[in-house]
Amino acid sequence: MTSIDPRRANLALVQREFLDMLRGVHPEGERWATEHLHAGPSPAMLGFLRSAARSDRRARLRGYFPRFVTHADLPPAWLASLASPIVTARFEAALDHHFAACLELVEAWPEAAAWRDCLRIERAEALQRRWPASTIPELVAELRTLALPDKPLEFDERGVCDRPGFCFVQLDTTLIDLWLVPERSPREACEWGGPRSAAVYWCSRRQALRVVEFHDLRELALSLALGA
Amino acid sequence: MRPRIALTYADSLRRVIEIAIERELVDAVEIVPSGYLAAGNARLLRERLAHFGVPHSFHFIEGSLASADFEAGPLTEAMADLIAEIPPFQVSDHLTCCRVGDVDLEMNLPILMNADSLAICVENVQTLRRALGERCPLLLEHVPRYFEFRGSTIPAHEFLAEVAERSDCGILLDLHNLLCDERNVGLDAEAFIRALPAGRIREIHLAGGRALPGDSTWIDGHDGEVPARVFELLDVALAHAEPALIVLEREHRFHDFDRILADLEQVRDRVSA
To answer: How far is CA A102 from the centre of its chain?
Structure first.
């Protein structure tokens, strides 16, 4: 029988309580932070860390593709083999695990301008793969013009926004950003039903499952919280 | 010997890296291979790195080398496989604890620094070195101290130096992390640099960040231009040590490519001086 190193057991206890405190699940987190930390994290910092921490990597990896393995990176044969899982279990898992966490973050940092610019940059990166002659700054500038940033997104009764360059479907209070291809639109997708069905339909057409593409919630938190 | 200069690889920086290589601003690439590790897609990683035709280093983020329950296993095996398949000239990971048991926050978090945690870190790093097969130098990066533990009894520079010495590893000196510590916990960054064993400092990271809205906390965002203070710290570091690699980290907000190139020019000018 393997004996447990008491030093490691003690440190593990402190570390577990520390992580639980950051996740906001420690039963006496505030007291713990006061006892164990010098001038603990500021409320903003704690909010940032907690939001970024409320996730589980394995759950996220089940729910969407890691940042570095986006559709555009994969050869067609791989993409075909991956398309099916997207529209079934993985997509639903993404809704459960991924969008909920995003929503928390969006609510924590309701900086609409940062959110929109983040989407623009992501979109520009995607468009550049299609039209490599244009630079990302050029595409971002074009998307800014198209988006008329002073004008809020407007959704129809089905929760669809068809603004050129920005095609969103609103699911509950979560925005799903659908990839734009010239010949298709969210409205077409919504012919198949409500927003959730539209999003599934869109994925079935191999347009990416999107809220905002990011590697982990820390990155999204940074994008949302720190965006100019 | 003149250090190599690298930019972190991100898909969005592909063209910038090409330009930087053409202009002889960089002669290496550093990559965080986590996505490829998770997807088991070494082929894609190899293709991307081969495209540039320059040496590469791996900057791992999943080790959580200060975790009490760190052990060799599938993760370290995957890291070792990747290193064997696409050999880097050096690898690095962080002295942080973001994982205990089944909880993994995937963040660089401050650690408790006392005699016991130091001994455990040393054991962990030695375990990782054995698991990686000692194919290339392993470097340890200190992380920003957004806050500090009351139970810490060892100064941060001593802790880092001791772990590196006892485990015979290199040090990755992150100058933007030090800027965070200067602004957040009042660190004397220049004294920190000079207190480290010069021969252990094999890599330097530069980056930009910003303050949280409505808060003075400075975050290591890797999302902006390199602040002037970081370049001042680079001067201090280059006067103290001879790193093999200097890396400009840029992982978010890829919209100001000219500024990225300008930052690289500043690095090149300093190492050429």
So the answer is: 5
In angstroms, the first-to-last Cα distance of chain A is: 56
CATH number 3.20.20.150 is the correct assignment for the domain at B4-272: yes
Domain definitions of chain B by residue range: 4-272
Q: How confident is the model at residue B166 (pLDDT cuts 50, 70, 90)?
A: very high
Nearest C-alpha of chain A: how many angstroms from B170?
A: 24
Structure tokens at A152: 């809020």
Touching check for A30 and chain B: CB below 8 Å? no
| pTM for this predicted structure | 0.69
Query: Is residue A45 one of the residues assigned to a domain?
Result: no
Residue ranges making up the domain that contains A194: 57-226
Asked whether residue A94 is assigned to any structural domain, the reply reads yes
Which residue among A38, A125, A136 sits closest to B148, beta carbon to beta carbon?
Answer: A38
pLDDT of residue B174: 98
Q: Is A173 on the interface with B (CB under 8 A)?
A: no
Closest residue to B254, CB basis, from A56, A67, A121: A121
Residue-wise pLDDT tens digits, B92-113: 999 999 888 877 777 788 999 9
- Cα–Cα separations (whole angstroms), residue B200 to B32, B34, B137, B161, B171: 22, 25, 11, 8, 5
- A69 and A36 belong to one structural domain: no
Determine contact: A153 vs chain B, CB below 8 A.
no
CB atoms within 10 A of CB A108: 15
Residue A50 within any structural domain of the chain: no
Whether A138 has a pLDDT exceeding 90, the answer reads: no
Count: domains in chain A: 2
